[in-house]
Design a protein that fits this description.
- By secondary structure, the protein is α/β, with parallel strands linked by helices.
- It has a domain at 397-520: Glutaredoxin (3-Layer(aba) Sandwich), CATH 3.40.30.120.
- Helices cover 31% and strands 28% of the residues.
- It has 14 helices and 29 strands.
- The strands form 6 sheets. It has a 9-stranded mixed sheet with strand order 21-18-14-17-16-15-6-7-22, with helices on both faces. A 6-stranded mixed sheet has the order 9-3-2-13-20-19. Strands 27-26-25-28-29 form a 5-stranded mixed sheet.
- Helix 12 (435-446) links the parallel strand 25 (429-432) and strand 26.
Length: 531
C-alpha cells in the first residue's frame, strides 16, 4: 500500500486546482475520481481575480487567461422588459493584476486543470475509483476505494481532502450534517451555440420578470447560457421534453438562432456543512458548501477553499508549522461561504420575485436607487475580508488591517516588470514603505527557520539596503492607497494575499512578528517551501 502526503477525493474544479497547488509544492498526492472518463459538461461559469490569483500560483494562469472572456457587465430588466439598472466592469488597472470578473467554458477549464497534473510525477490520478470508507488515527488516514473492474484498493495518507461535491462520500463518512440557510428553488439551465448571424445582447441580462424570472449569460466564443426559474406549477421533469423547454425559452430568445447543447434542471439550495474538519479529514468546495450560482460564487468559493487550504497544508507538511494552523481553514472559510450564500440568496429573492405588485415596487426602488448614485455602478466580486483565523489579534494599527485583502500590483524590479506574486512566490512576505522597518523585518525573519525564506519588499527604493530585501519601484497606486486606507507603513502578508497584520512602529512590528511565530512555529521547523 503506497503512502501519500495528501489524498484528494474528487477531480472536479476544486479538486483539480487543489491537486495542482499541492503538486507544485512538491507534495506526494493521490487523486481519486469516481468517473472513469472526463464528462466535459458544456456550460459557462464565472470566476474572479482571486480565482485567477490561485491559478497563477498553480502555474496555470497563462493557459486559463487565453481561454477566458472578460465579463461584459450585466443589465437588469424588470416587469414588461423595463430597464432597471446596469453594472459595468472595472477597467484597467486592476488591483490584483487580473480582471475582477471573467467567464469561462467549464469543460475547457477542467481540461486545463487535469492536463496541468501531467507536470508532476508526485501526483498520481486514479480514475473510476469511488471512496467507500476511511479510517484514521493520530498519524494517518487509510482510505478504501472501489473500482468496478479491479475491486477494492487501499490508500494510506497523512490527510484526506473531500472535494467530491454535493453528494460527498467523505462528508457522509465524517457524519457532518448540513445547515440549511433557507433557499430551495428549481431552475433550468440551457447551454447553446449561437449562430453567427444572431443578434443577441452584448451584456449578460437578469430578467426580473414575475411571470418567468431568468438570466442570459454571455460565454466565450458562440456559447451562451439561459437560466429560467421553474414555476411552482411546473414539474422539473417537464424540461426533459425538448419541445417544452424550447417553448419556454422563446420568452428570452428566438430558438431558431441557437443549437442547444444541453438542458439541465437543478435544485438550488443554500447548504453549509456544520463541520469542515474531522481529525485528518477535511471538506472543500461543494462537499463543504452548496450555494446558488447567481453571483458566480459557487465555483469561486471552491477555488478559495483550495487556495486557503493548500498553503496551510504546505506550511504544516513541508514548512514546519504546527498542525493547529489547519484549524484556521474552517474558521476562515466557513463564515465567508455563509456570507456568499446569503448574498446569492438575496439576489435570488430580488430576481425571482413572482408577485407582480411586489415586483413593480422592487423595480421602482431599484430605479430610484440607481438615480441616486452619481457614478455608473461597477460590477465587482464579493469583497473578501477575514474576521477570524490566522490573522493578528489585539489592538492598535496592526489589528485594523488584519484580514484585509492585500493588493497585487505590477512592480518594477531589477529583473523588469513583474506581478508582486512572482516576486514573493508562496511564503509569507512583508511589504514596507519604510526602510528602517523593512530592515527590522529582514533581521527578525532571518533568525527564524519557519520564516527564513520569506521575502521583504521595500517600495520606492532603487538600491537594495540589505541582501534579503527586494526593492521595487513604480507608481504602485494600489499599494499606496492600501497603506493610506489603514494608516500604516508596513504589512505582513500571507501566501494567499490576505494581510496577517500591519504596523507603524518598530515595537508594533516586533509584536506582530512574535504573534505570527506563536501561531506557526514548532520545534525543529524548517523554512516554508516556496512554489
Amino acid at each position: 500500500m503506497e503512502s501519500y502526503q495528501a489524498i484528494i477525493s474528487g477531480l472536479g474544479l476544486t479538486g483539480g486546482l487543489l491537486a495542482n497547488l499541492l503538486g507544485a509544492c512538491g507534495m506526494k498526492v493521490a487523486v481519486i475520481e469516481r468517473d472513469a472518463k472526463f464528462l466535459g459538461r458544456s456550460c459557462t461559469m464565472t470566476a474572479d481575480y482571486e480565482a485567477q490569483r490561485a491559478f497563477h500560483m498553480a502555474g496555470l494562469a497563462g493557459p486559463i487567461e487565453a481561454e477566458f472572456y472578460p465579463h461584459p457587465g450585466t443589465e437588469y430588466l424588470g416587469g414588461g422588459g423595463k430597464f432597471i439598472k446596469a453594472l459595468s466592469c472595472k477597467s484597467d488597472p486592476f488591483s490584483l493584476c487580473w480582471r475582477p470578473s471573467f467567464i469561462l467554458h467549464q469543460p475547457t477549464l477542467e481540461g486545463i486543470l487535469r492536463n496541468g497534473l501531467n507536470r508532476f510525477k508526485n501526483v498520481h490520478v486514479f480514475l473510476g475509483e469511488s471512496v467507500k470508507r476511511f479510517a484514521q488515527d493520530g498519524d494517518e488516514v487509510v482510505v478504501t476505494t472501489q473500482h468496478p473492474n479491479h475491486g477494492q484498493r487501499l490508500f494510506r495518507g497523512q490527510y484526506l481532502l473531500g472535494c467530491d461535491g454535493a453528494s460527498s462520500a467523505v462528508r457522509r463518512g465524517m457524519k457532518s450534517s448540513l445547515d440549511d440557510l433557507g433557499l430551495d428553488e428549481w431552475w433550468v439551465a440551457v447551454d447553446a451555440y449561437v449562430r453567427t448571424d444572431a443578434r443577441l445582447p452584448e451584456r449578460c441580462v437578469r430578467y426580473c420578470y414575475p411571470g418567468r424570472p431568468g438570466a442570459y449569460i454571455v460565454g466565450p466564443g458562440h456559447i451562451r447560457r439561459w437560466e429560467m426559474k421553474i414555476m411552482p406549477y411546473e414539474d422539473p421533469d417537464q424540461f426533459n421534453d425538448s419541445k417544452y423547454t424550447r417553448r419556454i425559452l422563446t420568452n428570452f430568445v428566438d430558438t431558431n438562432l441557437i443549437d442547444v447543447l444541453q438542458t439541465k434542471a437543478h435544485r438550488i439550495r443554500g447548504l453549509v456543512a456544520k463541520r469542515w474538519r474531522s481529525g485528518r479529514v477535511f471538506l472543500l468546495g461543494g462537499a463543504a458548501c452548496q450555494m446558488p450560482p447567481f453571483l458566480g460564487e459557487e465555483s469561486c468559493s471552491g477555488f478559495q477553499d483550495a487556495f486557503n487550504f493548500a498553503w496551510k497544508l504546505n506550511s504544516v507538511i513541508l514548512g514546519g508549522a504546527d498542525s493547529s494552523v489547519l484549524d484556521t481553514y474552517a474558521k476562515e472559510r466557513r463564515p465567508q461561504a455563509c456570507a456568499a450564500v446569503e448574498s446569492a440568496k438575496c439576489l435570488s429573492l430580488v430576481v425571482g420575485e413572482l408577485d407582480g405588485n411586489i415586483a413593480l415596487q422592487r423595480d421602482e426602488l431599484l430605479v430610484a436607487g440607481v438615480k441616486a448614485v452619481a457614478q455608473p455602478l461597477v460590477l465587482q466580486p464579493m469583497g473578501s475580508r477575514l474576521r477570524a483565523g490566522l490573522i493578528a489579534r489585539g489592538v492598535g494599527d496592526y489589528k485594523r488591517a488584519a484580514g484585509a485583502l492585500f493588493p497585487q500590483p505590477w512592480v518594477e524590479t531589477s529583473g523588469g516588470k513583474k506581478r508582486l506574486d512572482d516576486v514573493v512566490r508562496w511564503g509569507f512576505y512583508v511589504v514596507s514603505l519604510d526602510e528602517e522597518l523593512a530592515q527590522i523585518a529582514a533581521c527578525e525573519f532571518a533568525g527564524v527557520p519557519v520564516l527564513a525564506d520569506s521575502k521583504v519588499v521595500l517600495v520606492g527604493a532603487s538600491v537594495a539596503v540589505r541582501e534579503q530585501i527586494l526593492c521595487v519601484s513604480g507608481r504602485n497606486l494600489d499599494l499606496k492607497s492600501w497603506f493610506d486606507a489603514f494608516g500604516v507603513r508596513i504589512a505582513i502578508v500571507r501566501p494567499d494575499g490576505f494581510a496577517y497584520g500591519a504596523a507603524n512602529t518598530s515595537r508594533q512590528l516586533r509584536a506582530l512578528i512574535k504573534s505570527l511565530l506563536l501561531a506557526l512555529s514548532r520545534t525543529n521547523g524548517t523554512a516554508i517551501h516556496p512554489l
